[in-house]
Design brief:
Largest sheet: none
Number of domains: 1
Strand content: under 5%
Shape: globular
Number of helices: 15
Helix content: over 70%
CATH class: Mainly Alpha
Radius of gyration: 24 Å
Order of helices and strands: HHHHHHHHHHHHHHH
Distance between the termini: 29 Å
Length: 282
């Protein structure tokens, strides 16, 4: 007990920061959950109490099956579109990043340093800089309102290449030499030797890139014109109504709470690998 008190006295500022940060993060989420259980009249009048109401089942069922009257897209459709987009963006980024880093670091081909330099230069050219040109290409290839159009421009990750190349440069070459002596080819070495050693890095990059794809707003806004192809950020914004329609706050907040479940589950499943990666970094 005495050791615990001494530890708290030394680290009180860290715990204070954690408590304040937790309140700042969790309070809006708690208010969204409470608001999702009340009717629109209570919320609109500014009289929402700090405890759950009696309209939770109605609001959540409406959000899941139909969505808000103004948005006219159900949450399950929005979540499906966002999940497909985020999953394949994350998977594509991981696969391309690790294969590119593996090829640059382990294959001695001409101008490989030049190839890596070109990859580094692309960091200065994010998608937002070339958004108009990318949209034109997607339009010419009839990729508007398609999953391929949502996913393809985002599957390349220069950050992932840098991450994996840094890991591979510190990779023990003796393991690869032993695998080659046993007759393993380049693909076999990658699959059986390299990938198991980089599992925490792969999981961490996948989680980060999944959240990155899930939260995309500008590109889906440009490339999707049909309501059934909208993603979560666009759908939630359009549920807020407009001059000709009142906002159904109960349904909007219920939709927000439902849409939070997917990224939370992904982070919880990847948390073990993220912690292990942090321990490796130490």
């Amino acid at each position: 007990m005495r050791k615990l008190l001494l530890h708290l006295r030394r680290e009180w500022y860290a715990y204070l920061i954690l408590i304040v940060t937790s309140i700042v993060v969790l309070l809006p989420l708690a208010m969204a959950f409470i608001g999702s259980t009340h009717d629109d009249a209570t919320i609109g009048a500014g009289r929402m109490p700090f405890w759950p109401g009696k309209h939770a089942l109605e609001n959540y069922a409406r959000a899941w099956v139909k969505g808000a009257e103004y948005g006219a897209v159900s949450v399950r459709k929005l979540m499906l579109n966002s999940f497909i987009m985020a999953f394949f963006i994350a998977a594509g980024k991981v696969i391309l990043a690790i294969t590119t880093a593996y090829a640059i670091d382990f294959f001695h081909f001409p101008f490989r340093n030049l190839v890596f330099a070109v990859v580094l230069v692309t960091i200065m050219l994010p998608l937002h800089v070339r958004m108009f040109q990318t949209y034109q290409i997607a339009s010419q290839f009839r990729l508007l309102n398609t999953y391929i159009g949502l996913i393809l421009p985002w599957v390349v990750s220069t950050t992932g290449v840098l991450l994996f190349r840094g890991c591979l440069r510190a990779f023990p070459r003796e393991l690869l030499d032993a695998a080659k002596i046993d007759g393993a080819g380049p693909i076999r070495c990658l699959w059986s030797v390299v990938l198991p050693m980089l599992r925490p890095h792969i999981a961490a990059l996948f989680v980060v890139m999944f959240l990155y794809g899930w939260n995309q707003y500008l590109w889906p806004l440009l490339i999707t014109t049909k309501p059934e192809m909208q993603t979560v950020p666009i759908g939630l914004v359009r549920m807020l109504g407009g001059p000709e329609a009142a906002t159904e706050w109960g349904v909007v907040m219920a939709s927000t709470v439902i849409c939070l479940t997917v990224p939370v589950i992904v982070v919880l499943f990847g948390q073990r690998h993220l912690i292990r990666l942090a321990e490796i970094g130490k």
